[in-house]
TrEMBL record:
The keyword Oxidoreductase applies. Pfam families: Nitroreductase. Keywords: Flavoprotein, FMN, Oxidoreductase. One of its GO terms (molecular function) is 5,6-dimethylbenzimidazole synthase activity. Residues 26-192 form the Nitroreductase domain. It comes from Hoeflea ulvae. The keyword Membrane does not apply. This is 5,6-dimethylbenzimidazole synthase.
């Protein structure tokens, strides 16, 4: 009996398939306030998490966990923790930028029907992990790949997603019962949307602009400013 191959042909996608991948990449947006109240069905949530779980990870360690949060009372506590941290963040900016910062909507914790906290277990796989021997942060980078997979899958499903990063980790760990050894990588808000900005919201509102790709590509060695 012939031996079954564990490999498959690395054929390029058909044009329509390829275009769909690039469409997800180029139209993905950080959603904050455009969420609809419609709940995300369980099978769709499962597809999104399965996409995240199929992200690449160094040494195949798969260091992530996903905490799904729908309870309104829990989200209220998290939104309160965000509010405290957001006030601290606003005070860090120069005075002339504070009003502009205050006008930005930076989270959708209450409005999005599904919140997901993505964590990284830095002890998973043991002390010596293939590919992590000389860069101890590879588990964190791997978990970020899972977040990106989730984001692109959400876009393909017509679901908006926003990444909330303005927290004190200790507050979030206390609310969600996360052990000290576990690193919080992302707090995400997800929900259906009927509109998305054509360009990133912070670009539309003048907070920043997209850099030129040509200025970011170097050939053979570093060529930036000293």
């Amino acid at each position: 009996m012939p031996k079954t191959s564990m490999l498959r042909a690395a054929e390029p996608f058909l044009a329509a398939e390829r275009d769909a991948v690039y469409k997800a990449i180029f139209t993905r947006r950080d959603v904050r306030d455009q969420f609809l109240p419609d709940p995300i069905p369980g099978d769709v949530t499962r597809r999104l998490l399965n996409a995240a779980h199929n992200a690449p990870s160094v040494g195949f360690m798969q260091p992530w966990n996903f905490i799904t949060i729908r309870d309104q009372a829990v989200r209220e506590r998290i939104a309160h923790a965000f509010g405290k941290a957001n006030d601290e963040a606003a005070a860090m900016f120069p005075e002339h930028k504070r009003s502009e910062y205050a006008a930005l909507k930076l989270e959708g914790i209450r409005k999005a029907p599904l919140n997901i906290c993505v964590t990284c277990d830095r002890t998973r796989g043991g002390k010596i992990i293939l590919g992590k021997t000389h860069n101890s942060n590879m588990d964190l980078y791997s978990t970020v790949c899972a977040v990106q997979n989730l984001w692109l899958a959400a876009r393909a499903e017509g679901i908006g997603m926003g990444w909330v990063s303005i927290f004190r980790d200790a507050d979030l760990k206390s609310i969600l019962g996360i052990p000290d050894r576990i690193e919080i990588v992302a707090y995400l808000c997800l929900g259906y949307v009927d509109e998305l900005y054509e360009r990133p919201e912070l670009e539309v509102k003048g907070w920043n602009r997209r850099l030129s790709l040509e200025d970011l590509i170097f050939e053979e060695r570093w060529q930036g400013e000293p």
